[in-house]
Write a structure and sequence with these properties.
Distance between the termini: 37 Å
Mean pLDDT: 97
Number of domains: 4
Number of helices: 14
Structural class: alpha/beta
Strand content: 15-25%
Low-confidence stretches: none
CATH topology of the largest domain: Alpha-D-Glucose-1,6-Bisphosphate, Chain A, domain 3
CATH superfamily of the largest domain: Alpha-D-Glucose-1,6-Bisphosphate, subunit A, domain 3
CATH architecture of the largest domain: 3-Layer(aba) Sandwich
Largest sheet: 7 strands, mixed
């Protein structure tokens, strides 16, 4: 007989993770049942568990550990670390794992990012649906002996892996300011400070799940005041900022101007393609056009993927791509188990800028060739029926007579001066959109029109 679960857990089961409001959608009971189901579904003997600094993370950690050990699995407690550390352990040691976090979501939320051995993420299509059905039945394998929890500090091994072979020439002349936003990026900055000859200054480095300095998403202008203020007053070469669980990184020039993620991706792609001729590199409909152009210019092969970390990783594995870039500040590397790494990203940028600065360039000057297009901030509009709303907005955009239209992961339209994409959100009951052009006002005007239209049909 199906068990009764008190929390509204179905709302928390998204397409690429489990995430929701604590404790109404994600609570200790749900977390315990997910852990038991995860262990049973994949007959796991060992699970790596990491967590962020959110206020509810300690109780959810305890609940997950209880569920996993009751299922007979040994838990490797990685402690308070940023998400890429979990990926490192899962990838290098071929372990299943979980990161307890709500990533960049508001402070009242929490959740679970589950991975199979090799850092392969679970999605609705692969794993999450089966786990949900198993926990609803509440029938689990009989366990003769519960597992135990073992604490393991892997940060030194992680850092060694991230920095292996790095070229530090010229980095002693670099001054970089980082805004950890009271999130897990502070852990990485503590490790890098002293390990590299760069002069690092870290802001808001105290781990605090209340997010007292700013909200978690570093790509939104409203969350960039700490870093832009520091850059305007501190004499730094450039700045960086992270999200809550430390798997997203945003870059800023010396004057505090935000650098589009695709521009950073273009710099990394060009460096990679010098070594890996003709390599495949992944982009999405929401990634600035400059990345695709840079890949082609450097002799690489651009490969489209659906938006979302799990889908990008899946495409990279399938295509054997060397690198992937997402508009949200996620950067993916084949050499990092096809997952996202803020340290690998920063490493590539530091190497590139050390060379550029030695040649007399500022960070802004290095990035200028990749900043010719102006992108709007992505907008999410809540709707009742995502599929119906997407079909309606596609007809609306088609009626505006684009010179090019492509249906992949939503719809991509090109009107010549302005282009962009509208798609179904993988985490919300909403549509997500972003537009771009050489003139940001024109791109913003089109986005406003589309957003207004979606709002007008949101309840249909």
């Amino acid at each position: 007989m199906p068990i009764k679960i008190s929390a509204d857990y179905k709302s928390a089961f998204k397409q690429v993770d489990i995430r929701g409001v604590y404790p109404t959608e994600v609570d200790e009971e749900v977390t315990y049942l997910v852990a038991r189901s995860f262990v049973d579904e994949y007959a796991l003997k060992k699970v790596a568990v990491a967590r962020d600094m959110r206020l509810s993370s300690p109780v959810l950690f305890d609940a997950f550990c209880k569920g996993a050990t009751d299922g007979g699995a040994e838990v490797i407690d990685l402690g308070l670390v940023h998400t890429p550390v979990l990926y490192y352990v899962s990838g290098s040691q071929k372990l299943a794992g979980v990161m307890i976090t709500a990533s960049h979501s508001p402070k009242n939320q929490n959740g679970l990012k589950l991975v199979l051995p090799g850092a392969i993420p679970l999605t609705e299509e692969v794993g999450l649906k089966q786990i949900r059905k198993r926990m609803e039945k509440g029938v689990f394998a009989e366990v003769k002996k519960p597992g135990k929890v073992t604490v393991k500090d892997v940060k030194a091994a992680y850092l060694k892996y991230e920095l292996k072979g790095i070229k530090t020439k010229g980095m002693e002349d670099l001054e970089v300011v980082a805004d950890a936003g009271n999130g897990m990026g502070a852990v990485m900055m503590e490790l890098l400070t002293g390990a590299l000859p760069v002069s690092f200054t870290t802001l808001n480095s105290e781990l605090d799940g209340r997010f007292p300095s700013r909200a978690s998403d570093p790509t939104l202008k409203k969350n960039q005041k700490p870093i832009t203020t520091a850059l305007k007053t501190g004499g730094y070469d450039f700045g960086i900022s992270f999200d809550g669980d430390g798997d997203r990184i945003a870059f800023f020039d010396a004057e505090g101007a935000y650098i589009n993620s695709a521009a950073i991706g273009a710099v990394i792609a060009k460096r990679m393609l010098k070594k890996h001729k003709g390599a495949k590199i992944v982009y999405t409909n929401l990634t600035s056009r400059i990345l695709e152009e840079a890949i082609l210019d450097a002799g690489g092969k651009p490969v489209p993927a659906k938006v979302g970390h799990a889908y990008i990783k899946e495409t990279m594995r399938k295509e054997d791509a060397f690198f992937g870039c997402e508009h949200s500040g996620h950067f993916y590397f084949k050499e990092y188990f096809y997952t996202d790494s803020i340290a690998f990203t920063l490493r590539y940028v530091l190497e590139a800028f050390a060379e550029a600065k030695a040649a007399g360039q500022t960070f802004g000057e290095m990035m200028a060739p990749f900043m010719q297009y102006k992108q709007t901030e992505d907008v999410i509009v809540d709707v009742v029926d995502k599929k119906k709303a997407q079909a309606s907005v596609e007809a609306f955009l088609k009626a505006k007579k684009p010179v090019k239209i492509r249906k992949f992961d939503g719809v991509y339209v090109d009107y010549g001066e302005v282009w962009g994409s509208v798609k179904i959100s993988v985490t919300e009951h909403a549509l997500k959109m972003m537009f771009e052009g050489r003139d940001k006002k024109k791109a913003q005007k089109l986005q406003d029109e589309v957003a207004s239209y979606v709002k007008s049909i949101a309840n249909d």
